[in-house]
Amino acid sequence: MATDQPSPAGEPEPNRCSWTGSDPLMVEYHDTEWGVPLHDDRMLLEYLILDGAQAGLSWSTILKKREGYRRAFDDFDPLLIAAYDEAKVASLLQDASIVRNRQKIRSAIANAQAFLRLQSEFGSFDHYLWSLLGPHPQQNTWRLDSEIPAQTPQAELLSKELKSQGFSFVGPTICYAFMQAAGLVNDHLVNCFRYDQVS
Fold first, then answer.
1. What is the per-residue pLDDT for 10?
2. Is the Cβ–Cβ distance between 194 and 16 less than 8 Å?
């Protein structure tokens, strides 16, 4: 359910999806990024890596570490990440600004390598992704949070395809979170002020 709460200045806040809560980082992310159709390869890789890092954690935890990830992972440059060696993995495991999980770090490296292969084959990851799931975002009409699924047949398809290309930490639930973030689906509630803006 979208929220409509007074702002500190006394002006009513617009209706938002309730998952934002009152965390300023979550609110800003919701208001400016979540659900906007994305076509930038570097940002798509960032979302993929961050959604994989979220597994077992809250999205707010990952958002708080986002700048740390950008520093630690060379602003999500796939060429640089794909070349990380064991010394770099060891260094990342000591970096408190990210989730220090060996499997997730190795996954990010392998995913960057797979990402580069798809870029080479399809011209861009964006073209691969939207050719597979597009060409236009799916417009949902949810009225309650409880209506929004954790995964869909499209997310299962994306998960299967990415795994076949060598990606990991890309199960259907992670893939659906990625699709929501990258605007492949519009899962803003219909009474959220962002619903029409990203339609």
1. 60
2. yes
